[in-house]
Design a protein that fits this description.
21% of the residues lie in helices and 31% in strands. With 229 residues, it is of the alpha+beta class. Strands 3-5-6-12-8-9 form a six-stranded antiparallel β-sheet. Helix 2 runs parallel beside helix 3. It is globular, with a radius of gyration of 18 Å. It starts with 11 loop residues before the first helix and ends with a strand.
Length: 229
């Protein structure tokens, strides 16, 4: 997942669409390799760049992540990987360490889920799908997001929402079409299910006749994994 000095990879989501479909068809997991250093005309990735790669991949049903490269090679203009060419940790090491800790919390849940639907709002990138309201997520507002829907082995629905804006937070409102009346999120620090708080303890979910509305903040390039029950 590279970002260039002058532009961005235009078919990133188109590639994710293809890989997701083929992985589901074959019944195998897929993984994403995220660029963690600069080289050639690829620019230095930021924390938001890496979070973007991680959480968009998870929304598409990816079940493994790797970073290229760990050691900064002393050739081909490689620079500022997690471990520099002298063996010392760079600031990128801390970024990846934090993301890996989050994945350790989310992974045990995500690896038991099957991706059932993925869509973007309010615009669909090249090769991607626009949210059509036919899934669990009937409507979404408040930001630019990719929405992944999942199913557990017991048939319970799960939803992941990732903010595709790498510079601005978003106050997201989801209108869910579901008979379930409760929703919880996976804490990225403990890995435990917890109520979704809109802001310091304010309830985020409200039920109505055929579903619920959930409101919450997403930091730039951030994501939430939620279970309906």
């Amino acid at each position: 997942m590279p970002f260039f000095e002058t532009h961005e990879f235009p078919i990133y989501f188109e590639n994710l669409e293809i890989v997701r479909e083929e992985a589901l068809r074959a019944g195998i997991p897929f993984w994403q390799i995220i660029l963690s250093c600069a080289l050639f005309n690829y620019r230095d990735p930021t924390l938001a760049d890496l979070r973007y790669g991680v959480y968009t991949t998870l929304a598409y049903g990816g079940q493994a992540l790797a970073y290229y490269t760990y050691w900064t090679h002393d050739d081909a203009s490689f620079r500022e990987g997690p471990i520099d060419k002298y063996g010392a940790r760079t600031p990128m090491f801390k970024v990846i360490q934090q993301l890996n800790l989050e994945m350790q919390a989310l992974g045990p849940w995500l690896n038991k889920l099957t991706s059932t639907r993925v869509a973007h709002w309010p615009e669909a990138p090249i090769g991607a799908r626009l949210l059509d309201g036919e899934g669990i997520v009937a409507e979404v507002s408040g930001g630019s997001v990719v929405v992944g829907e999942f199913e557990s082995q017991d048939g319970e629905p799960w939803v992941m929402v990732a903010n595709t804006d790498r510079s601005a937070s978003a106050f997201i409102t989801l209108r869910l079409r579901t008979p379930y009346k409760q929703i919880a999120e996976v804490s990225r620090s403990s890995g435990q299910l917890r109520p979704i708080a809109r802001d310091q303890g304010v309830n985020a979910a409200f039920g109505y006749e055929d579903g619920m509305v959930v409101r919450f903040w997403l930091a730039p390039a951030d994501g939430r994994l939620m279970r309906l029950y």
